[in-house]
Amino acid sequence: MNEQRNLLLAILVSVAILFGFQFAFGPQKKLPDGDSEFAEAGNPPVPIQDRTQTPSRHQAELSVPVGSEAAREVVLGQGARIPINPNDDGATITGSIALTGGRIDDVILNLYQENTQPDSPRIVIFSPPETSQPYHADFGWVADQDTEVELPGHETVWASNRHELNPSQPVQLSWQNDDGLRFEREIAVDENYMFTITDRVINDGDRSWVLYPYGLISRTDEPKTLGFFILHEGPLGVFNGTLQELSYDDLRDKSGDTVQSTGGWIGITDKYWLAALIPDQTIPMTGRFSHRSTAGREKFQVDYLLEGKSLAPAGRIEVTNRLFAGAKVVTLLDQYEKDLGIARFDLAVDFGWFYFLTKPLFYLIRYLTGYLGNIGLAILSVTVIIKLIFFPLANKSYVAMSKLKRLQPEMLKLREQFSGDKVRLNQEMMTLYKREGANPLAGCLPIVIQIPVFFALYKVLFVTIEMRHAPFYGWIQDLSAPDPTNLFNVFGILPYTPPEFLAVGIWPIAMGFTMWLQQKLNPAPPDPMQAKIMMMLPIVFTFLFARFAVGLVIYWTWNNVLSILQQWVIMRRMGVKA
């Protein structure tokens, strides 16, 4: 059995382990069954809100470029609004609530910027329907389709008892129809990203009604996504303790799919940001994912509908629900899950198949970051800890490789002697392995066992917001972005910007060099063509890793350095030339 077969076997076993963990331990994921629509189940449908306008109309109304910040500010200044945290410079979020429609459609994250430049714009989560990228949340009531009653909608103008919303001062909106129904909506916000919406209806008329509470999040057009297979971006939710994820393409194909649940949540996620509806966790709900196209644009919507509530004359009904609109900070999601009883809220962060490894690794990195003061140092420290945990396994692997390297001259002689008789060659090779106590598989299996841990660490560094815009040392100001230096303009000396596929920085070069060094310590493939292919791999991986987050490249480089040191020491002890 030659080294090439060992490599292929290791890859196959690795894939089997990955998929085995996926099905055995990963968060369960499935699509909604989609057997029925709300209307078919006897309940009124949640309205698909359609306030999309074409870009040309935007420009005609605003007389400024549609996608500009000025256009958004013009829209925000056109109607009555309740500002959020207007007098708090240190507030986590700012924005406003539109009194027309009573919707939450303006949320800005003050702690996060689009890039690392000091004057970079802050991250905008929600924008009004009249802007270029509409994204908003709405709550309300619907009635049975055969019931004639005027309910507040997207054109309803609410009255407010206050002129601003902040954590110590909720606002109360009110509106009354001609049937004697008074609608009240109290909106509160905490110091972070959670809104609490309490909707109540008071019946001053002489007729009974049945009304159904709903909540929805509407997003116009598919946002720009990474499109990376290990990261989910798009609609998702937790129903009956099970995570369900749909891509935007899934939503186009399965629009209107519904799912029943008691407790849980439903929303839309980006890599670092989340908008999620959290209904009363004790009331059965029907969640829905929907899509439609109108005026040349797409509308994606997630919503829920709760059980109908009977409203007798002189009676009142009330429901309290929540909206999360902000950054996916793991510790904060965990705190909300604990304090508010939100089922598996932490799964908004795509921890992936190895959840049981990924999340503990995240908390270890977070702890070390607080102790060391830099997440880059924490990554290096965690790599050392992982190497220490797997030290015995790695030792067995490197000892096996060292034995094979020591036997390589004899193996080459056997290949030359029995080049025309593969059966005899294999017999002699097995005899050599048995006599010298060498096992080719011993070098593969310990590495395979470590794959889930290394993949989990990779996942932590890729999906958690803590690494975003986190500086390291020297020229690295953002561990979540590629290395900004470039070999092909002599690291900035030449006034030339190479194409993206040639953007190879210092850290990717260091990673490729350590990979090459590690190859030199391993037994070389006996076949010259295989050897040339293996020698090309460091170059290929250098260009591949050049566009990865530099935090991941630093981790991989440091891991290679530790592996090289460990393997070199073992080879010296065994008398093998390094």
What does this 3D model show about the protein?
By secondary structure, the chain is of the alpha+beta class. Helix content is 36%, strand content 24%. It has 13 helices and 19 strands. The chain has helices at residues 3-24, 55-62, 69-76, 248-253, 330-340, 355-372, 375-389, 391-417, 422-436, 445-463, 506-521, 528-545, 550-573; strands spanning 81-84, 93-98, 104-113, 122-126, 135-143, 159-160, 171-176, 181-189, 194-203, 209-220, 234-239, 242-245, 257-262, 265-269, 273-278, 284-294, 297-306, 309-311, 316-327. The strands form three sheets. The protein has a nine-stranded antiparallel sheet, with no helix packed on it. Strands 5, 10, 13, 16, 17 and 18 form a six-stranded antiparallel sheet that branches. The protein has a four-stranded antiparallel sheet with strand order 1-2-3-4, with no helix packed on it. Helix 1 crosses helix 10 and helix 11 (506-521) packs parallel to helix 13.
Structural class: alpha+beta
How many helices does DSSP assign? 13
Report how far apart the termini are: 24 Å
Radius of gyration: 30 Å
CATH class of the largest domain: Mainly Beta
Question: What about the largest sheet?
Answer: 9 strands, antiparallel
Under the CATH scheme, the architecture of the largest domain is Distorted Sandwich
Percent of residues in β-strands? 15-25%
Choose one word for the global shape.
elongated
Low-confidence stretches: 1-12, 17-42, 51-66
Within the largest sheet, what's the order of strands?
6-7-8-9-19-15-14-11-12
Q: Can you tell me the number of structural domains? A: 2
Q: Round the mean pLDDT to the nearest integer and report it.
A: 82
CATH topology of the largest domain, anyone? Beta-galactosidase, Chain A, domain 5
Percent range for helical residues? 25-40%
How many β strands by DSSP? 19
